[in-house]
Amino acid sequence: MDIDVINALKNLCNACENISKSSFFNNIEYSLKDLVKYDIINFINIISIENDDVRIADFIHRYLDGKQIEKIELSSPITSLSFPLFVFFDVNNNTETSIIVKHLFEVIGKYYLFNNTEKREIDRNSYINYIVEMNNYIDKVKNENSMLEKSKKSLGKQVNLQNSEKQNEDTLEVAYEQNLDELLDEFNSLIGLETVKSEVRKRINQIRVDKRRKKVGYRTSSISLHLVFTGNPGTGKTTVARKLAAIYKELGVISKGQLIEVDRSKLVGGYVGSTAIKTQEVIDKALGGILFIDEAYTLTYGKGESDFGQEAIDTLLKAMEDNRDDFVVIVAGYNDEMNEFIKSNPGLESRFNKYIEFEDYTANELVEIFKLICKNDEKHIHEECYEYLTNYFKELVVNKPSNFANGRIVRNYYEKVIESLNERLVVSLDEISDEELQVIRLIDLQKTF
């Protein structure tokens, strides 16, 4: 007997017992355990190519005490009869019992997929589709519930605060509700990146003009919104992607405007079938927004035929085709590697035809970044520091170290400066003025190395 299956069944039984004590299931004819058992039998039948009767009988004998399961007739929005009940309970009680259920089916499917005597008779795609259906249903119910809660809150604010501005719960939502001009001002205020800004503006202009054309009934341009960001680390690729998500949302290109940032580890699994599930989960979170894949070339670069990176790409390409009206993908990485990555697959090459290069920052721009970090951290740079800062970053740009990372290296330098500042201040902490606590002096810059 497989210990993982036994443990997953035990966890589910405990969850069923706890849930059944609540009044939520008082009017349900069948017990939760019976519904889950029936779903397990049906699941094994769905993923089996042949010998399903033998496999089902063996599972009942091994794991269900040999008790036969009667056919249950219930309407369900998904293949599983029990799963919607668990999800609904979770939404109303802030629990995660549906995750326990999903884990059980993942364990059972994995057990058959990796069993040498079973795996050739198991339909891997049916298994993946079953789990993806569960994930999609969880997201759908949670999103619907979230929209309902927001509607209730909004109605309450309209009744009680008709003449006041609507207050948002986080900074991102505030940014999304700003008008387009304000978002563009924010974008244009980014330090440096003049080439990037120019390319993004061209794209925004195209969208705005096409929006007007569509309004009067003219044919619009057929352009892909998916982008390739190339350049070295720390050049603002993620920052620009985040700004672009807000702008695209304001333009109506995407419905939600969130940015989901991932790398290879968030997409690729360690066993057959897991990659498609992981990738699909990420895609589902990104629908209505932008999926940003950093170092995307690692999905294929230097990998053998047995690597699962290609499975992630295939899943991604299908999602881009199926959700072309409300899903944008940006892939990012080093110039040469990204060129090879896109050209390695006809599907990628046809969808990613717009490259935006992020050049390294100049010395003056690095100084401006340092000043901005200080400003955001409420630190004051003494005027004696500016010549030293300029020379320091000029030398850094001319003789770039192997770990040069543009904006990130400025952040690292700033943190060392603050360590030096604190070391200097702590010696006479009781004697210095409040203002002096926030002043960076030349000695703080010089003592960082």
What attributes does this structure have?
five-stranded parallel sheet; two-stranded parallel ribbon; elongated; single chain; 449 residues; alpha/beta
Q: Could you please describe the fold and organization of this structure?
A:
With 449 residues, the protein is of the alpha/beta class. Helices cover 59% and strands 6% of the residues. It is built from 19 helices and seven strands. The chain has helices at 3-20, 32-47, 52-63, 83-93, 97-114, 124-160, 171-177, 180-188, 194-216, 237-251, 264-267, 274-286, 309-322, 335-343, 346-351, 363-376, 386-398, 407-426, 442-446; strands spanning 227-231, 259-262, 290-294, 328-333, 355-358, 380-381, 439-440. The strands form two sheets. Strands 2-3-4-1-5 form a five-stranded parallel beta sheet, sandwiched between helices. The protein has a two-stranded parallel sheet with strand order 6-7. Helix 1 (3-20) runs antiparallel to helix 5 and helix 5 (97-114) runs antiparallel to helix 6. The longest helix is centred in the N-terminal third of the chain and has 37 residues, at 124-160. It is elongated, with a radius of gyration of 28 Å. The N and C termini lie far apart (61 Å).
